Amino acid sequence: MKMLELLPIGNFDARLLQNMAPALADAFRVPCRIAGVRLDPQFAFHTERQQYHSSEILQAMQEYAANSAWRVLGVTGVDLYIPILTFVFGEAQMGGPCAVVSFHRLMQEFYGLPADPALLIERLVKESVHEVGHTFDLTHCDDYACAMAPSHAVEWIDLKEVTLCANCQGRALEAVG
Ligand SMILES: [Zn+2]
Ligand SMILES: [Zn+2]
User: Fold this and answer.
1) Active-site annotation holds for 131
2) Which of 81, 113, 129, 173 could form a disulfide with 147 if both were Cys (CB 3.0 to 4.6 A apart)?
3) What is the pLDDT of residues 34-55, one digit of tens each?
């Protein structure tokens, strides 16, 4: 059965996943459930950077995905990176089945501002739709308001909608089948 599963990576309040699941189910018109297990990301921690290598996390998710859902989105509060970049908000495998997203730099607290739980969920949904979109072979979109527009800072995320533009939506639904 086609199912998007949210896999918590590391420890955080599970209500975050419950809050984002309906928006993801809606975006891709597939059921979205929360995994009953949790992945410990410690193996991907690199002391020299004090960050977690997102590609290593994606690699570890493969095994889980093989016995699990059709698409798996890992969600984590740890700071992710790939070697050529200072950080990444997330990473995905083009064409699936796995993607990972971090809310570490989506929290207002990261920028020295007061917490804003509603804004956090909104940003997390946008970045989750973006990364899951890549697993459906969607590439970056020129429409700045589309969830598939690239974002290198939270200001860019805030310009986007939680939804896909008509073109990306059409391609995603075709891929979902
Ligand atoms: Zn992207
Ligand atoms: Zn688009």
Assistant:
1) yes
2) 129
3) 999 999 999 999 999 999 999 9
